[in-house]
Amino acid sequence: MSCDQTYPFPQVFLVDAGGSQHPDQPPGLVPCWSHPPSLESAGRRQKSRGSMGVSPCTALVVLMLFLLVFAGLGFEAYEIYQMKKELRQVRWCDGHLSFSGLYEPLLKDEDDRERPAAHVIGRIEKEKFSKTLRWESRVGRAFTSGGVSYQFQDGALQVNETGIYHIYSRVELVFRDCSPTSSFHHLVFVRRGGRPSPLTLMEAHRAGFCRQQSAHPWTAESYLASALQLQTHDRVYVNVSHPTFLSHTHYANFFGLYKI
C-alpha cells in the first residue's frame, strides 16, 4: 500500500522495559489512511447496474421467466382448443350413432318430414316360440318413424316408401349343453306383393363356436347388416333356427332399418 509522504506523520514514541523513551528511533510501522473511492469509479459501477438499478443478468433471467410463463399459457390455450374440437366431434357422433354403434336417425329430413326408420328389440318369450322372431317396438330405445310400422301379428317391419335402406339384425343364443357340433342359422328376408315366396336378403350360419368339451354352456351371436333396395309395402322379417336358445337380455337381440 502506498501513502503520500508529503503529509507529516505524528511522532511515535517507543517505550522499552527500562521506561526510557527514544524519540529519534524511526518507527517500525507507518500508519496510512485510506481515501474514499473517486466519483468516476462509483459512476461506472452505477452504470453497470442499469438505469433502474438492476443488473443485466437479473433482467435476462426475469425476461426468460416471463417467456416461459407466456409459452405455458399458449400451450394450455392450444390444449383447450383441441379438447373443445374433439368434444364437438363426439357430440356430432352421438347425434348420429347410438350406444351400440348403430345409426340413430334424425327424426326430421331437410323437407321437415320424418325419416323412414325403425329399431325394435327382442321380446322375451316364455311359452310360444316361433322361428320368425317377435319384437318390442315401444320399450327402451325402440322406435318407429317416417311411415315404417311394426306388425305385431307376424313381427315384420313394413316400409311405405321405395328406396335404399340400411337393414341390420343381431341375435344372441345361449347353448346350455354346447358341443362341437352345435350350430344355428340367422336369416333376414322380405315378403313382397306379387311374389308367392319370401326373398332372402341376408343369411348367416354359425358353427364350431363351442369348446371341445361337451355339456358346457356357451354364448354365440350373429350380426347381419347391408344396404338393400326395398319397395313400398315390403315387409322385412328375421328368422333364427333355435328361438328357444335366444338370450333373455333385451339389448342382446335387435332388428332395425332406416332409409339412406
Report on this model:
- It is found in: Membrane.
- The chain crosses the membrane at residues 54-75.
- Belongs to the tumor necrosis factor family.
- The chain is an alpha+beta fold and 260 residues long.
- Among the domains are: 62-94; 117-259, Jelly Rolls, CATH 2.60.120.
- Helices cover 20% and strands 30% of the residues.
- It has helices at 39-48, 56-96, and strands at residues 117-122, 135-136, 143-145, 149-151, 156-158, 163-178, 183-191, 199-207, 216-230, 235-240, 254-259.
- The strands form two sheets. Strands 1, 2, 3, 6, 9 and 11 form a six-stranded antiparallel sheet that branches. A five-stranded antiparallel sheet has the order 4-5-10-7-8, with no helix packed on it.
- The termini are far apart.
Topology:
Blueprint: H1 39-48, H2 56-96, E1 117-122, E2 135-136, E3 143-145, E4 149-151, E5 156-158, E6 163-178, E7 183-191, E8 199-207, E9 216-230, E10 235-240, E11 254-259
Antiparallel strand pairs: 1-2, 1-3, 1-11, 4-5, 5-10, 6-9, 6-11, 7-8, 7-10
| Secondary-structure element pattern, one letter each | HHEEEEEEEEEEE
| Main pleated sheet | 6 strands, antiparallel
Give unreliable regions as ranges.
96-104
**Total strands:** 11
Q: Return the CATH topology of one domain.
A: Jelly Rolls
Helix coverage percent: 10-25%
What Rg, in angstroms, do the CA atoms define?
A: 48 Å
Class inferred from helices and paired strands = alpha+beta
So what's the CATH class of one domain? Mainly Beta
CATH architecture of one domain: Sandwich
Percent strand equals 25-35%
Shape label? elongated
Distance between the termini: 103 Å
Overall mean pLDDT: 79
Discrete helix count: 2
Subcellular location: Membrane
Protein name: Fas ligand (TNF superfamily, member 6)
GO molecular function, one term: tumor necrosis factor receptor binding
Family: Belongs to the tumor necrosis factor family.
